[in-house]
Amino acid sequence: MSEDGVDRGKRRFLIALTTGVGTVGIVFAATPFVLSMNPSARARAAGAPVDVDISKLELGQMLVVAWRGKPVYIVNRTKAMLAQLSNNVSLLVDPYSKVKSQQPPYAENIYRARKPEILVVLGVCTHLGCAPSRAFTVGAASGLGANWPGGFFCHCHGSKYDMSGRVFKNVPAPLNLDVPPYMYLTDTLIRVGSDKKKGAA
User: Fold this and answer.
1) 113 shares a domain with 54
2) How many of the other CB atoms lie within 10 Å of CB of 45?
3) What is the 3-class SS of the chain, one letter each residue?
4) Would you put residue 56 in left (φ > 0), alpha (ψ -120 to 50) or beta?
């Protein structure tokens, strides 16, 4: 205790404690404000872009995310899956993605993708809107016949799509699966729902 009767150690402790409590209070007060800047669930459902981390998506696996209330399938295709795509051409309704409304210009290719290995498509059958299931196993083991090359199968009415989401002939679905607008923010982070960088026209 000092000569004037003040315990300086206690004073320093109380000042530090008050500062700490004030800092914590500011963080708690600011958190809702910062979170309010993120798109709400309603905004995301209405079409706000969705950022998807694909860093843990293994070869041959599929990730499903929601955008505009619809499932989006993101598939990390193997070399075998990619090699099969050119073999399917004669079996498909629109093998070269000529129907412009089905995909952005950067997906008008055999891969229907910005990068060959990563497929991004809406998981909505173009017949009546059911969600096709993954049917990546090839051949008889798939249950879809000995010649099945792998892809997606809609259990509602039997429509079939290959590993690029291109529809096979002689099934109810008339069109390929839609490719939504998307872009890479990094090598492992995809933004679904937007393909325009900030400031771009």
Assistant:
1) yes
2) 14
3) CCCCCCCHHHHHHHHHHHHHHHHHHHHHHHHHHHHCCCCCHHHHHHCCCEEEECCCCCCCCEEEEEECCEEEEEEECCHHHHHHHHHHHHHECCCCCCCHHHCCHHHCCCCCCCCCCEEEEECCCCCCCCCCEEECCCCHHHCCCCCCCCEEECCCCCCEEECCCCEECCCCCCCCCCCCCEEEEECCEEEECCCCCCCCC
4) alpha
Counting as low any pLDDT under 50, the low residues of the chain are 34, 199-201
Catalytic choice (157, 169, 189, 196):
157
Could you give the CA distance from residue 195 to residue 104 in angstroms, rounded to a whole number?
9
At residue 116, the 3 state secondary structure works out as coil
Q: Is residue 91 domain-shared with residue 21, that is, in the same domain?
A: no
pTM over 0.70: yes
CA atoms 122, 125, 130, 136: torsion sign: negative
Q: What is the pLDDT of residues 137-194, one digit of tens each?
A: 999 999 999 999 999 999 999 999 999 999 999 999 999 999 999 999 999 999 999 9
Answer yes or no: is 64 within a domain.
Answer: yes
How many whole angstroms separate alpha carbon 53 and alpha carbon 180? Answer: 17
Assess whether 12 and 46 both reside in one domain: no
Domain that holds residue 34: 1-38
157 is catalytic: yes
Q: Is residue 176 located within the same domain as residue 86?
A: yes
